[in-house]
Amino acid sequence: MTSPAETAAVFVRLDQSAPGPGQIALVSGGDVPLFRLDLPKGLRGQAREQVARRQLSDRFGLTPEQVQMRPFAPGGLGEGWNRVLVAPPSLLADWRGLECRAVLPDYLSLPCAEGVWTVAPQGEMMLARLGPDDGFSATLALTLPMLERALTEQGRPGALYLPEPIPALEDWANSQSIPVAHNESELTAQALPMPQILAHDELSSDLRQDPMAARTRLTANVLPWRWPLLAGALAAALFAASQIVAIQRLGAETDSIAAQTHALVQQHFVPSGPVLDVRVQVARALSQLRAATSGQSKQVDPVQMGWQVAEVVASLSAVPDSLIWRDGDGIQLVLRLPDFAATDRLTTAFSSAGLKAELVESRASTDAQGVRAEFRIQPGGSQ
């Protein structure tokens, strides 16, 4: 707890002397009362401040012309504050020019802790701190009823801390069964937290600062950017809409082309039956058309041609792997030969047998000795 000497060096009453740069100016708490309001938990920012002003006007008859308010949020309450400091605008204007550490109502200079009420005399006035989030300055005659009201609203504290004896308050505390403590050792004996000075962010309630004015200035700085931001958002929305339209148009064109392709295939290549695979069915139809155009479908006998191929392969002692007949393409023959030179001899033998042999591929066998060769054989060699 701060000693009396240290407290005297930190705090200066504004009605007695001018504060220095590192000191805290104290003004009469009677000029800056602390009001408790009933604010919804969900409200934040300017909406919360507007409701607070309305309640001040409705419940206490205080208009913005008469008083200005400052949200009181000790201990990091942030946006959840429900108490406000109010003061006449003329006094706030006078205090705004003071060059000091802060300007506070005098009751915020008292030490405080949760569950401990602190009351100390200041001349003819009583300064009271009813925990970190409440306090007042009043005469002794008004202090007692105000403590009665706080007792009804907040419940009985753990102790009434009186750094200086005040018989009337001690009698009142005894009548309410509230323990009285005059020093640190008595508080420690009751296992209560030790009241401390300026330990609950009281400096954030500096009366020279107006958080609402700061927010207004921030709003004024941000507002000029609202039209460029709105224009940018509108441009982005228009671009996205144009892309969606383009994608939809491309999809419609793709569907139209697919439908036209399906109709053409149905008309020219697959006159009967469904169109299942355009590529395969068109390739098959074209193969049949080529065969019909070259006359192979009438002249070529696959069985006879197969015997001719077999005779040639047997004459050269080649080992066939597979023999496949394809309409329009003739015979696809895969066989094994002793060497690459045998592919030329086999081509010549096919030609002599009246077959046209085309070497598709030849390579060394990987799983056996010799050469693996693939031929495409059609009728038409020299006799």
Automatic annotation (TrEMBL):
Taxonomy, superkingdom: Bacteria
A GO cellular component annotation in the UniProt record: type II protein secretion system complex
Keywords: Cell inner membrane, Cell membrane, Membrane, Protein transport, Transmembrane, Transmembrane helix, Transport
GO biological-process terms attached to the record: protein secretion by the type II secretion system
Localization: Cell inner membrane
Keyword Cell membrane: yes
Domain GspL periplasmic: start-end pairs: 221-378
Record bears the keyword Flavoprotein: no
Gene3D superfamilies cross-referenced by the UniProt entry: 3.30.420.380
Pfam families per record: GspL_C (PF12693)
UniProt-listed InterPro entries: GspL_pp_dom, T2SS_protein-GspL
NCBIfam families, A to Z: typeII_sec_gspL
Protein family membership: Belongs to the GSP L family.
Protein name listed in UniProt: GspL periplasmic domain-containing protein
Species the sequence originates in: Thalassobius vesicularis
